Please model this.
Amino acid sequence: MDLQTTIYLVVGASFALYIGIAFWARAGSTSEFYVAGGGVGPRLNGMATAADWMSAASFISMAGLISNMGYGGGLFLMGWTGGYVLLALLLAPYLRKFGKFTVPQFIGDRFYSKSASTVAVLCLLTASLTYVIGQMTGVGVAFSRFLGVSSETGIYVGMGIVFMYAVLGGMKGITYTQVAQYCVLIFAYTVPAIFISMHLTGNPIPQLGLGSNLVGQDISLLQKLDTIVVELGFGQYTTTTAGSTLNMFVYTMSLMIGTAGLPHVIMRFFTVPTVAAARSSAGWALVFIAILYTTAPAVAGMAKYNLISTVNTAVATNGDMYAVESSLEVAKQPDWMNRWAKTGLLKFEDKNGDGRIQYYNDKTKNPDVIAKAEAAGWKGNELSVNADIIVLANPEIALLPNWVIALVAAGGLAAALSTAAGLLLAISSAISHDLVKGVFNPNISEKGELMAGKIAMAVSIVVAGYLGLNPPGFAAGTVALAFGIAASSLFPAIMMGIFSKKMNKEGAIAGMLSGLFITLFYVFAHKGLFFIKGTEYLDLIGGPNPFFGITPEAFGAIGALVNFGVAFLVDKFTKEPPEHIQHLVEAVRTPRGAKAVDGSHAH
Amino acid sequence: MDKNSEAYWKATLGLLTKILSVWFIVSFGAGILFVDLFNKIHLGGYPLGFWFAHQGSMYIFVALIFIYAKKMGEIDRKFDVHED
Model:
């Protein structure tokens, strides 16, 4: 069977599975729609959380980023997993005890203020919407590459599929579909990695393979990788940091608290039956996430080794990498390079006209490398590889069978669709529950609210699809923004709501707004006002990364510090929260009496 | 707040402090701030600091959450605030 047919079959089967599950798990009440009836066990919820959390970015882009960054890429690994420790210890069990449907509802009730909950809704909508656009774009890319349709058609198909199971099934449908999607994506991610690890190191476990010796050689994979990348003018793989140590520290912290503060993740912990289940469920979620996240650095390192040894034959023979015959002849390049060159994700340009591909860092400052490249007649790097290829083309690079390639296609789509669905649910519940029921029409019937939820979700799918089709040129910046907002506004507000009994509404609102404002100010200075090109104002703040060299992506933790600082300052000078709120905090802190999650807006 | 819930909250915060210290030490300590120092030691083919950043922290995070869940359950029962 040819590759295209196999891909259609595998992807088609996975979609049929999702829709079947959605039909079986239709939501009939608001409780089922928002929190899946509150009866999902900790392990199942952990698995659904893992699928919800791991997006197109985790599945497709992360290993490629790490491959390019080397050691510094560890900030994604530590940041996106360490956040679950914070979530499990500081937020999830207490929010579960509080027992309501949404994050803004907690903020609104705890800070006895509709303004606070409205600010929270705003933060939630901005964070989730920017995030979901990235997912829709990811769906488009995956479809266009694997199904041979245009990226637009891909997004329409994706919208249709999400619409069917998210609108019909709500949280209940989404939960069970996400469990299926997790199985598909983790299988798709680990199978190629096992093959490749086996091939390079003889060890079938990629996590161990990365730390093993190369087959038939007396040198470890990482050591060899270090040697060849340095020889080609790149930074040493195992030690190159992300910017500076301070930047890496702050960046990792931002991703951690951003992860803990993302509403679509927090929401998943409202679906478990007890406080104890919320605690252990976070652990299970991290187990399922870690299976992919500990495989990713192995994929990253091995793919980098494979790529370089493909274009430079001296890697395998330990020969001179700058010898003429070491560079791969264009005529002899493998099929996968031709295939990916068509997508534009892989580019080759014969700068010195020798009919061979030279791949090295032509911007290096290492005089040794510059001299060698000049002596060999190299006129600049001739191959550029988009980071996304590393995972998508990995099975092809390793010459794996067609069904593995088809599996990776289905896995990438599963990752993007499951995250999109979770985000859409967070958006629609914020609109129907916190805005429609909470602010505009408190007397709405349950049936009416359920309908409002479904309409809100349908509208968000259309908006997300539209923005995915017409991205205002900000796909890359948006995820940074989502994490920045979650870290600087939502996480501190929720945490203070639980851990500080005396925190009042004035402090919380001032904190959220100032954390949000300073983060947006810093991000927009680099990326343009609302990501519109040409509106950057770097001169105003003194050039790029003016705050101790911290990049805008890493700024969320600083925003959170500002949030905490302002909140405590304002709190000091305004009156303390009423007695019944302080009792509410005490009640939230103890597990006994946790009851089924419901949505009533009691004040 | 009555005496029991005060003691319960104190025990909870004590546990959180311990767990978060380990969380900080393995990731920000061994993986970032003192990575060069740890890289002098090798774990198989892995420099140890690199291993903490790319592998070890994540394994320890998983263990930390389960330890937390277990110890928290014990604290709940000790102060008689557990769910039935």
